[in-house]
Structures are given as structure tokens and as C-alpha cells.
Design a protein that fits this description.
CATH architecture of the largest domain: Up-down Bundle
Order of helices and strands: HHHHHHHHHHHHHHHHH
Helix content: over 70%
Oligomer: single chain
Number of strands: 0
Radius of gyration: 34 Å
CATH topology of the largest domain: Rhopdopsin 7-helix transmembrane proteins
Distance between the termini: 86 Å
Number of helices: 17
Number of domains: 2
CATH class of the largest domain: Mainly Alpha
Length: 410
């Protein structure tokens, strides 16, 4: 298990310090923000504790200072009690105005200091009768009354703190306005509950030694609790900062897919109506939102230019074929308009003029009415559906081919 800890704990230490250095950039703008300072303190404390928890580092610190198990004490005080108190302070300032948050923060810090001083006193008293350094301080010394009392105070404090963190995160998530803050609070709550498994396991050590059981046999529970819970806590506390970048990336990817999906329809129009292209296409996709906006305008200009060539007979025939093919009602408008555009492009390509409608078709309205949306997203979504139908719909192909065969017979 020592070998596994030598991998997991340095990884968790690096994760906490990475979060520290990521968030420390915010001090340039909020150097006196209590929530940010408390968050940085929490990450630094936990990063230091996991570094000390690495077996080789703990051994080196104990030998260098000449005090057996001093590393274990620092892990419990810094990475346990002080860390949880700092996170509770962060939540207090996230959820309340400063004048309300400060009293809550003060009493949490006072309680944490009292508990840390009590734990220090118990550790010093237990050290007087210690046979020497322990590779697993809590597990190997649980049979000693002072260490058992130290352990129970430690685990009960952490369990109360982690449950309180989970409760507050869940409570504040229900009223958080920012979506990424809401997600972060929920992730932190889940991480706190998973991490609390560590301390339930540690509390069970007091009972298990009474039955001559070896708690080290299920030490893997500690690794799992920390290895899953801490990344969730760190991720949840930092995701309000980096989460919006994921949203921006997701939006960019959706816009890129939409932009590419519009290409067949745009190209068909551009080849017959080159005047629709407003600026020449750029060589990069650095401003994809702008390029998508221009492509939508160009397609709309092409639709307007083709309207004199649209024939309601194509619309009626396509609608009939679509219903026979079992198309859903929300799919039919895009298929009908795509067929009209394809037929109109064919007529324009052959040098035709505006079609002369029969009396039957004059009684049937042209189903294409430049459908779309009220904003860029809904417009892009509609035209993407239209472009897919234009390029791939068998109903569109059948309707246009049927019209072409009828014109050949004429």
C-alpha cells in the first residue's frame, strides 16, 4: 500500500497546488477578496498535507526535525482541520454579503483553532510514551488511549465539517444564479461526501483493534476516498472559473459543425448566384461566429433571389411525398423548402424564368416562406436542417427528379 500512496498522494498534492496557482492569478484583481484568500489557503494547506503524506517525504521530515510522527500531526492539522475550516469560510463568503459572512467565518475559525490546540496537546501527551516513529500513526497507535482520543476528535471534526460542507453546497446550489457556480457547488458536495468515507474508516479503527483486526487490510478505502473525493472538491471549487471556457468551447464546436453543415446549400447557391457572397471567405476560422453569421445572410440572400423561380407545385408534391414517407411534422417544412430551392436552382441554371403556375397550384400556397428563427442560434439551427435535407433527403431528390422528368416529357 505504501507504493500506491507514493503515487496517489503526490498526484493529489500536485492537483491542489495546480488549483492554487490557477486561482492565484485572481489576486491581481481581487487581492483583498476574503473568499479568494480562503480558497488559496485551502488549496495550499491540502497540497502541503498530501506532500507530507507521501511516505518518503514524511520519513524525511521526521528524521530532519528529529521528532517522530511530526509529519502525521501536520497532515491532520493542516490538511484536515484547517483545510475544512478554510473551505467553510469560502462558502460563507460565496453565499453571504461580507457583513454577514464575517461573523460566520470568525466562529468557524475559532472552533478550528480550539480543536487544533486540543489535538496538539493530545499528540504531545501521547508522544511521551511513544515507542518511536510509526509508519501509520493512527492505525498503529489506536490501542493507546490518548491516540484513540486524538483520533476520535480528529475524525469527528472532519466528518462534521465535510457533512456541513456538503449540506451548505447543496443548499446554496439551489439558489445560485450562475450555472457553473451551481454545478461547482454540487460537485463539491459529492466530493465532500465521498471524502468523508476516509474518516468513517478511520473511526472504525478504534473498534476493529478491540477485536484484534488489522485496519491496514482495508486501507485501500482511504486511498479511494481521497483519490475520488479530493479531485471532485478541487474541481468543484474551481469550476466557476474555468467552466465558462468549456461552454465557449462547446458553443464554438456547435457553430463549427453548423457552419460546415451549411456548406452544401451555400455552395450550390454560390455557384449559380455568386453575387450573394458579401466579403471574400477568410483563410482561418478565428472568428467563427462572424463567418457563420455571414454565411446565414448569404444563404438568405440566395433564397430571396430564387423566390421567383419557386413553384408551389414542387411544394405540394414534396409535402405529399414526405407524408407518404412518414416524415414527422417538424421535419416536413425543411424538406419542402429544400425541394423548392433545389428545383429553383435547377430552373435558374437552365436559364428559365419565373414559372407560370397552373390554376391548381395558384390555389395552393407556396409552402416556403423563409422559415427560420429570431436569433443567430435558431436561424443556424433551421438552415442546418434545411441544408441536410437539401443534400441528403431522398424525398427532396425524388420530388425534384419527378419534376425534371415531367418537364422532359413536356
Amino acid at each position: 500500500m505504501t507504493g500506491v500512496k507514493s503515487i496517489v498522494f503526490p498526484f493529489l498534492a500536485a492537483l491542489c497546488w495546480a488549483a492554487f496557482f490557477y486561482k492565484i492569478r485572481g489576486l491581481r484583481f481581487e487581492w483583498r477578496a476574503p473568499a479568494l484568500l480562503a480558497l488559496l489557503t485551502a488549496f495550499a494547506l491540502k497540497g502541503t498535507a498530501f506532500a507530507l503524506a507521501t511516505p518518503a517525504v514524511a520519513l524525511a521530515v521526521d528524521r530532519q526535525l528529529g521528532i517522530p510522527d511530526i509529519a502525521a500531526l501536520c497532515i491532520h492539522l493542516l490538511g484536515g482541520v484547517a483545510f475544512s475550516a478554510a473551505v467553510l469560510v469560502v462558502l460563507a463568503f460565496w453565499a453571504h454579503a461580507p457583513e454577514q459572512a464575517w461573523p460566520r467565518a470568525r466562529w468557524r475559525l475559532v472552533i478550528a483553532i480550539i480543536i487544533m490546540l486540543t489535538m496538539l496537546s493530545l499528540w504531545i501527551a501521547a508522544a511521551a510514551g511513544s515507542p518511536g516513529r510509526s509508519t501509520h500513526y493512527l492505525v498503529q497507535n489506536t490501542h493507546r488511549p490518548l491516540v484513540a482520543l486524538y483520533l476520535l476528535l480528529y475524525v469527528s471534526t472532519l466528518l462534521v465539517a465535510l457533512v456541513e460542507i456538503a449540506r451548505l453546497c447543496r443548499k446554496y446550489a439551489e439558489v445560485a444564479g450562475h450555472p457553473w457556480l451551481r454545478r461547482g457547488l454540487r460537485i463539491t458536495a459529492i466530493g465532500a461526501l465521498i471524502y468523508s468515507i476516509n474518516f468513517v474508516n478511520r473511526a472504525s479503527d478504534v473498534v476493529s483493534v478491540q477485536f484484534n483486526l488489522n485496519p491496514l487490510k482495508w486501507e485501500v478505502v482511504t486511498l479511494l476516498g481521497a483519490g475520488i473525493g479530493i479531485p471532485l472538491i478541487v474541481g468543484g471549487l474551481t469550476i466557476p472559473s474555468w467552466g465558462p471556457h468549456l461552454s465557449a468551447l462547446h458553443t464554438w464546436w456547435n457553430n463549427y459543425r453548423t457552419y460546415r453543415s451549411l456548406h452544401p446549400l451555400w455552395l450550390a447557391m454560390y455557384q449559380e448566384l455568386p453575387e450573394i457572397m458579401l466579403p471574400p471567405p477568410a483563410s482561418t476560422l478565428s472568428n467563427l461566429n462572424y463567418r457563420l453569421y455571414r454565411r446565414i445572410i448569404e444563404i438568405r440572400d440566395g433564397q430571396i433571389a430564387l423566390r421567383p423561380y419557386m413553384n408551389s407545385e414542387v411544394a405540394v408534391r414534396t409535402a405529399k411525398l414526405g407524408r407518404e414517407a412518414g416524415l414527422a411534422r417538424n421535419e416536413l417544412p425543411a424538406v419542402v423548402e429544400a425541394a423548392q430551392l433545389k428545383a429553383a436552382l435547377g430552373a435558374k441554371m437552365k436559364g428559365g424564368s419565373a414559372p407560370i403556375e397552373s390554376s391548381a397550384s395558384r390555389d395552393s400556397p407556396v409552402l416556403s416562406a423563409l422559415s427560420g428563427g429570431d436569433d443567430l442560434a435558431s436561424e443556424a439551427n433551421w438552415l442546418s436542417r434545411l441544408a441536410r435535407a437539401f443534400a441528403h433527403s431522398p424525398v427532396v431528390a425524388a420530388s425534384v427528379n419527378d419534376r425534371c422528368s415531367q418537364r422532359t416529357e413536356w
